[in-house]
Fold these 3 entries.
Entry 1:
Amino acid sequence: MLVEAGFALPLANLVTAVSSLMDIGIGCLIAFRQSCRAGLWLGIAVSLSYMMGAAILTPAMWLEPLGALVKTGPAIVLMMVALATLEER
């Protein structure tokens, strides 16, 4: 999708690799109680930035019914719920 948006293939591959590693890192932060709050806040921030970036660079992604952007909204809501209930678990 990035190549279709005008990115060169090496840059698209780099962006994909970096964002994948960032997502894995955020997931690891969320997995541990001591870093869970920071991971949830980072997850929300990164998800919002993905949504804004994709809306600018590849707006057609919003039309995919099971696409990444459609799932991002509920994921943000779930992270907010996890933040709200973090002290209770």
Entry 2:
Amino acid sequence: MDTAAVERFRELLRIPTVSHTDPAASDAAPFARFRDTLRRLYPLLHAELEGELVGEHAMLYRWRGHAPDAPLVLMAHCDVVPVVPDEWTHPPFDAVLTGEGEEATIHARGAIDDKGSLVAILEAVEALVGEGWRPARDVYLAFGHDEEVAGLGAPAIVDLLRERGVRPALVLDEGGAVVSGAVPGVDSETAMIGVAERGVMTLGLTAREAGGHASTPPPLPATARLARAIDRLQRHPAPVRLVPPVRAMFRTLAPFAREPFRSVFLNLAVTGGLLARVLPRFGAETNALVRTTAVVTELSGADGENVLATTARAAVNIRLLTGDSVTEATERARRAIADPLIEIDVRHGSDPSPVSPWRGEGWRRIATAVGSALGTDVVPTPYLQLGASDSRWFTAICENVYRFAPFRLTASERDALHAHDERIRVDVWLRGIGFYRDLLRLS
């Protein structure tokens, strides 16, 4: 175990860089402390690379190579989602280390999402600078500070790079991981490299009425009208289909699948429709691969238990499948609800990202680093990222944008993201450093 690297990681995990949807609830002090700690822990990097603050707390570093064109951009974000401490087995910002050997595990908010990648990148760069190594072409480190709230840090970095005429050859952000058993019929370890990500939007649903005392309710009060609208949405999900990144994933994994999955994956021209209809039965992740999903995440009604709500509201979080759009999803919701007295408004939304190629130089570099650092038996495959990331902003200046975190994650470890007991195994994290080192050497 590289004890020094692990202790640096734990120190940074202890800084509660929590981002909130309400800017007034955010505390700037931890972000300033995080930057100060980076300068102390990584002195060689800060001596060699040119660093600047972008926006409020986003960080951009430039590592000058032998040539400035076609640079590599390594992305991560330092902010984390809020916690409910009582739900955690270990305090979420203590970075508790448990176990020994292969079972050694760090428990902390941000251990995977996304300080795991951020600190692994820093460790790789610090080591290479210490060796006197210099990249063939420029390398940028782009660290956002408000990714978890779809904020302004990453867009500001992209705007700055565009103004300076920077056109990256390759951008790599957080995303899929090294997993096994995530694709039906495939037992091999797979490196799920996101070539695209779904769009994200929120619809607001509002029902209104005159109000009054709860002892004399009308036939269809605002809360009941809203509940009916939500039920109709639930009973009319978006249609299923196989989009190009998902088709590419199944074709790539077909040789490693057991029967009958192998035959199904090899003959998608015939079996694609059936596969799309069956995949939702395998769980939430495979359902999200084949359809635009919608779920109600917030509800509000009256202020008192004996008062009729004059306004009942719901927030619907929608994740758009490749090829879908904010406009289409809004109209689909309007048709499903079929109630002109339900007000529907788009609070915010962005369409799905463009699809990056799963062939060519950029893809080859990532796949090569997967093999050298994580194992030649790991199968790199294109993947449709289900969540949104800061990388979507970089598609405006780069055609080769990928989403991959070089960590072996179990299903329970993936489930802990944005939930309690987030954690990462030490040996898994250390191997991730090796991936970034190898990828940088290929730049």
Entry 3:
Amino acid sequence: MEDRKFRNAMGSFATGVTVITTEVDGNIHGMTANAFMSQSLIPKLVAISLKEDAHMLKKIKQSGQFCINVLSEDQQDLSKVFAGQVKIDSEIQFDYLDGKPVIPDALAQVACHVKSEYIEGDHTLFIGEVTDVNLEDGEPLIFSKGKYRTLEKLENPVAAVN
């Protein structure tokens, strides 16, 4: 099967947009990623997947920690900056969660230390043990079929049935 056909099929799955951050020798590094998932509740584990040639791969291996920042619908520009699609003149400000750098106002900030890693195909899967979480109000930034999207707001939402 052709690579493009496979990529298009995988791109049909709508995902949230995250920025993965870490800090090495006092320098903060980040990259936009949508290969993230919750792995386990007990213990609290998450998984991220990074391509073998990604600059962040080496940084996470060096630091042994990372944060997942789930972006809000208002943070599309940040997604583009950390994806290397847009350059900005100003310095990006970070907050800290459990001593790890996070994106201010992200919908969710998940601090982790690397529990294990697995090389599969051309990616490394990092399993992170969650050390802290912070939540904010707002709506998520969505990515599907190569485009940013937002959730449609319903005028008359139907109440959940128990």
